[in-house]
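#lab-general

N.A. 3:47 PM
ok so I finally got the sequence cleaned up, no stray characters, all 318 residues accounted for. can someone with queue access submit it? mine expired

B.Y. 3:52 PM
send it over

N.A. 3:53 PM
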Amino acid sequence: MPTPDLTPEAFARARAFLEEEGRPLDTARFRHAFEGAAVTGALDALRASQNEDGGFGRALEPDCRAPDSSVLATMMALRVLHELDVPADEPLLTEIVGWLHAHLHTDLDGSVWPFLPVQAEAYPHAPWWNQSKPGELAQTFGGFRVNPRAEIVGRLWHWPGLLPGGLMAQLTLETRDALLAGLEDGDVNGHAVAAVFAGALAIADDHRLPVLEYLADVLPGRVQAAPDDFAGYGLNPLMVAPTPQHPLAHALEEPLSAALMHLIESQSEDGSWGPSWNWFGQFPEEWPQAEAEWRSALTLDALLALRAWGRLTERLTE
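B.Y. 4:20 PM
back already:
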């Protein structure tokens, strides 16, 4: 049975939610993507989360409330600039790349970006960002060899030449090798960032294709597929193949169809989509704000995914 479209009425509810409840950044991104607004509105809204050092913080990633610049928030900003397809000379982009270059940590095992500075522990955050013990965050994220490196490297290949060529070659090779060493079954975000790397067509085939083949082999058994799965936290196939043009889409046709059906059916009455996770009681006073911000971001993500897959009817009755 074909997946139905999101109706014009449902789209109108989502639009109203973003206009009334959304973060300024998500509202501006929506207006650019769906209403033809100038990209400058989204860039200005993104700039509000930038610090004087060129990096990003200020809860741009809602699960970490620290104001300080972090790789986590700066990666989110890079993700937005990739979505907006800004030119390589966009000042926000060059500032981000400069900040990332300056905060790359190199040791005998290679170069990685630690997600958060130690001072982020002092601010409200999700449990997976805990770092009260030395090395706790690096242990949680496997030394940062895959996540966030695979996403950052994959997205930077959208603008070849922003980092020195030798450094990009080194980072690409190290990322490929880390991915081919294998991902743990339950590493949701590890698979998602690996898919960003595999989908970056500018990466040389000898680095990208082995990763693509590995993911095409393992993902059908690891993504959510049954209708009941999608309500909980897990590896949604739309996280690895957000558009039908992604090279992993063909390997995931059935679970993607089920994911799109669930996405349409799971819209809340207020027009939004919410997170499938929470902070498990940590910082209970701050979680509602983070949840509201995620609801804004995820609503826009849902609309972008549905449009990419041809499952969105935007026609409205004014």
